[in-house]
Amino acid sequence: MTDAPPPPRGGSAPPPEGGASFVDDGPGTVLPTEAYTEWFTRVVAWLIDYIPILCLLGIGWGVLVGTQETDCLTEVSGYDLSESCATGASTVGLLTIGITSIFALVYVIWNYGHRQGTTGSSIGKSILKFKVVSEKTGEPIGFAMSIVRQLAHVIDAVICYIGFLFPLWDAKRQTIADKIIGTVCLPL
Known about the structure:
By secondary structure, the chain is α+β, with helices and mostly antiparallel strands. The protein has helices at 39-66, 91-119, 123-127, 143-158, 176-181, and strands at residues 69-76, 81-88, 130-134, 183-187.
């Protein structure tokens, strides 16, 4: 008698030696719903992820509004005296909103593309201790697919934001974007 493990079934890879890992036992394998990250936790992580963006854009808009320039034109005629004023954005305000918008975009690409793509967790997900992984491999999905996943959330929003509510009743707690990309959110 040997100590060799039994051959894999149905062409799947043999289980890894030592330690627990994500193992897909084939089609139809679903962990219990409790094993996936709750909807409320995902919402709070999203809010945490967007705090820096709101701060950056708030600074930009604050400078834009605070530095507005007003020009008034007074017209005098034989019958009327009228004054009209126009308020417009200053150069400083436009530059500030432009620069802060670029910083916000760079942050989103870094947080959701690089950080979440390579580690599975954005800043908010790290704080709340969960990660986004491939449904099939259990590994982070990489930079490009992480960005595509974020873009796929547009589909969640298009149908009256119902796609974002899917985790409330879905067995794997997935949004429509998660289903399209093939990802799940699991606790760390």
